[in-house]
Amino acid sequence: MMKKTLVLLLALMAMLPLRAQIRGNNIVVTVTPDHKDWTYRVGEKCKFVVNVLRSSTLVDNVQVDFEAGPEMYPEVKKTGVVLKDGTMTWTGTMKTPGFYRLKVVAHVGGKDYQQACTAAFSPEKLQPSTVMPKDFSSFWKNAIDEARKTDLNPTKRLLPERCTKDVNVYEVSFQNIQSNYRTYGILCVPVKEGKYPALLRVPGAGVRPYGGDVYTASQGAITLEIGIHGIPVTMEQKVYDDVFNGALMGYWEFNMDDRDKHYYKRVVLGCIRALDYIEEYTPWNGREMGVTGSSQGGFLTLATAGLDKRITFYAPVHAALCDHTNSLKGVACGWPHYFYSGDSRDESGKMKDERGEMKNKIEVSRYYDGINFARLITDKQNGWFSFGYNDDVVPPTTAWETYNIVTGPKTISPYQQTWHFWYQEQWDEWEEWLLEELKG
After folding, report:
1. What span, in angstroms and rounded, lies between the C-alpha atoms of 412 and 404?
2. CA pair distance 410, 204, nearest whole angstrom
3. What is the C-alpha separation between 204 and 256, in angstroms, rounded?
4. pTM (predicted TM-score)
């Protein structure tokens, strides 16, 4: 009896890994352009083909809604369109450089299925609308100089449960712009004695804990992943959720009308002080120093590289906070879309930037625009840019503008079909590029 029971248990255990997993959808919407690189010249026509598929075959008499036109400013919106054979075509074009998007939502079985395709029209000719204030560089130099009057006064706590045989992991903190205001992060340092290249990781929007970049450190580098809100980064998730939904709700809009009190001032300065910490308190080799992040972290990557020439390489991925003023001219603007309302003109037909009611916020926004930091990047700093054409948070218009404005060495690697997320291949390419730069 015991033998039979044991055989049965072993059989059941062997079956556990065979349980079916939920993966993907049987209903799929595809929107495909007629150029494989999704790229066209201004004035050229893009032909989009839409298919609604069930088990890879067209769905008859399917109902769809769609909108088409320049990203964030669709010119055509249609609802309840029935596709008799489950397919349709659409033709779009642009008279000026930019991105034209066809977005389709299919309604099948009481559920919605969405896809889009965003065609690029002469993106290499895109130029930003924001201008650099005459005192932009001096404003930030003075801010950094003032912050450095405050001693870093660092703390360092070993996290044994996160350490490996090759990497020691610590929660660290250091003072930022004034006494008792601290920046927290996770520092990973190779166990083996020696001098190493360094990588600063800067965060996307939100409030969360951090695990540190143990993998890159295991390859022979110092890594420091920082938070930006002045609170420890090793607490329970609920603490961060409560803070994000409470005191820090919408923090990116705090003090938009005051360049000295703007929320991102201490955030940007915290990135520079993080480099100070690496230089003074870690076994950095004094040569290779990189910075990388995505979304809000892409903006902070540009700001750090632009302001600090210790940075030898940088990798912004779908960088936010770029070209805030685009929307005042009816062109796609970067997250958090400060001045976007879906309409670029007031009742009298004047452009919104002529009304004056937002004048102060507009002027302040230029000091916190990734474009202007990108203008400071030099030919001794190597850059890697990546983003998605379908991204409706960080529009490709602003991503290409940012890339175009950089005069130093740079590589661009768009993953056209991505929205505001990564593909595995994109992640792998990014990590491989960083490791090569860390090797010098």
Report:
1. 10
2. 22
3. 19
4. 0.91
Composition of the chain by helix, strand, coil, percent to 5:
30, 30, 40
| CA of residue 238 relative to chain centroid, distance | 24
Alpha helices in 254-295 (DSSP H): 263-281
By the 8 A CB rule, do 399 and 330 touch? no
Q: Which of 171-175, 356-360, 392-396 has the lowest mean pLDDT?
A: 356-360
Rounded distance between C-alpha atoms, residue 165 and residue 157, angstroms: 18
Which SS3 state, helix, strand or coil, does residue 405 take?
helix
Rounded CA-CA distance 289/437 in Å is: 9
Q: Could you tell me the two tokens for 253?
A: 């809009």
Per the CB < 8 A criterion, the answer to whether 144 and 276 are in contact is no
Q: Please check whether residue 256 is in contact with residue 130, taking contact to mean a CB–CB distance below 8 angstroms.
A: no
Q: What is the largest CA-CA distance in the chain?
A: 89
Is the backbone peptide bond immediately before 197 cis, with ω within 30 degrees of 0? Answer: no
Quote the tokens at residue 175.
């003072």
The mean pLDDT value of the chain amounts to 93
Closest CA to 310 of 366, 365, 271, 338: 271
